[in-house]
Amino acid sequence: MAFLQLKGVEKYFGDLRAIKGIDLAIERGEFIVFVGPSGCGKSTLLRLIAGLEHIDGGSLMLDGRDITDAPSSKRDLAMVFQSYALYPHMSVYENMSFALKLAKEDPAVIREKVERAAQILNLTPYLQRTPRALSGGQRQRVAIGRAIVRAPKVFLFDEPLSNLDAALRGQTRVEIAKLHRDLGATTIYVTHDQIEAMTLADRIVVLRDGQIEQVGTPLELYDRPANQFVAQFIGSPQMNVVEGRHLPTVPEVPAGGFVGLRPEDVTVQLAAQATAGGLPGTVELVESLGAETLIYVATDSGAQLVARQATRTALHNGDRVGIFVEAANAHRFDAQGRAARAG
Amino acid sequence: MAKKSSLSPALVARTLIAWAVTLLVFFPLGWLFLTAFKTELQAIAVPPELFFTPTLENFHEVQERSDYLLYAKNSLVTSVLSTLLGLAIAAPAAYSMAFFRSPRTRDILMWMLSTKMMPAVGALVPIYVLAQKSALLDTQLGLIIVFTLSNLPIMVWMLYSGFKDIPPEILEAARMDGATLWQEFRHLLLPLGLGVLASTGLLCLVLSWNEAFWSLNLSSAKAGTLATLIASYSSPEGLFWAKLSAASLMAIAPIIVFGWFSQKQLVQGLTFGAVK
Description:
Number of helices of chain A: 8
Mean pLDDT of chain A: 91
Largest sheet of chain B: none
Largest interface: A-B, 26 and 18 residues
CATH architecture of the largest domain in chain B: Orthogonal Bundle
Number of domains of chain B: 2
CATH class of the largest domain in chain B: Mainly Alpha
Number of helices of chain B: 13
Low-confidence stretches of chain B: none
Helix content of chain A: 10-25%
Radius of gyration of chain A: 24 Å
Structural class of chain B: mainly alpha
Number of strands of chain A: 19
Largest sheet of chain A: 6 strands, mixed
Radius of gyration of chain B: 23 Å
Strand order of the largest sheet of chain A: 6-7-8-3-9-10
Oligomer: heterodimer
Order of helices and strands of chain A: EEEHEEEHHHEHEHEEHHEEEEEEEEE
Order of helices and strands of chain B: HHHHHHHHHHHHH
Low-confidence stretches of chain A: none
Strand content of chain A: 25-35%
Helix content of chain B: over 70%
Number of strands of chain B: 0
CATH topology of the largest domain in chain A: Rossmann fold
CATH superfamily of the largest domain in chain B: MetI-like
Number of domains of chain A: 2
């Protein structure tokens, strides 16, 4: 049996069915990321696991124990909130030791655990400060420290990086990954940022409208998306999805179906120099990002495509081009958006 | 010309108006203070005497004729206990309304407030009969219950708006940290809400101390508060202005001193949630 098992979990807000029968098994030590557009129910699902919202249907088992109706305080989970939610009237030390104090741990043990966590998170010089006197990144680390001193069964992270600036976000992401590698703790992490999801997760759970669209490792989702939604949600810039009739070079597309192409599977050549067999089109926009270049083109049949290449380009807006696609890597979707197997 | 005069006409006008309003508000209190130290004859002299030899005679007489300390004790006991009782009921109510909102929360709050719009005299007969049937007439307990009930709506409102300034995630974090409801209250709500709890308590203390309608109607010699002491000088044998003033001064002095020391806290509490 899985370490954390969700069976048919339901949540209603009034008449709104926010979570629609979620089944999910999480193994001990896994790093699971819930990802999806805003309003998909990912934070609600996390709060249901945390016990901060009441579960209206289904069951939740943790380490062999039914915790469906257990209060948050009895679930042995720790949570890092988006707003950090530090106790403003307590010092960093008191914030981090609060849970242990409530659990009536021996003061000497508390001191040792807090000091070790502070050392891991580089918080030792700040232990006597109040949260007010810390920067955003330091507050974030205190929130993480508060969770790790307890050595809970599962760590829950609710969009922990969204209040940090871009540079700090990348840095903290790496720290969280290292922390997970060192502690090996089971973790559930909610984000709307697919880069965070791809870089941190052992497995990603893609949610939409309170339902799971697909569960899998980052590369499984990238290489074999179950449907058009997952295909376009994972990967940046997102996958090109066009009607099959626009791309005659891709065989075996279901009738009325769609073709999905990662931007790296599309190449563009100036029409004059293009080898035969390219789709005719026009360059609409060129984005030079340094390490890579994104070329937005429109085929003459009316499809919009993005090409990504690792080299710089001499193409300009309005240039006539030939467009080539890597048919072997193409994804095929039926008219309902479900992935269709080629051949 | 380099320095613009700080005494612009607008400023002078504003200052004068401010002083006029202040004097107008303060005048009855000042007059009360002066009259308390006059003889009965001086008190009704026309034109009124502004300069006179002050006397403490009125205070002696008030204490002799009616036991000031008994009334003062009644005031103290009823206002303190009704405040504590009120806080004990209002704090949990405000907590649940602020942190566990339901679609009806707003309606309940409005309904509570609306009970304060009804004139107290409208409920006099039923409450009098209830107090009589339960042997609470002229008892401290009876007054404590009535004071508490009449202050509850305002206490819940003040605490509600104060608690709403506390981010709910902080309490959720405590729950995740293993805090029980009581520990959540003890370690977070109490320290974080101390300001609003204190100012709500202070306001209710003042309101209960000054309460006159219910104490006049539900109490007399045994449980009477200072409000009933003052009233007792106003009718039976005609008006005794000097003694009435002395009694009033003794009744309001403690709460004025108290209010003076706690005014910062009071103002802060009354403007909770008003500014972010």
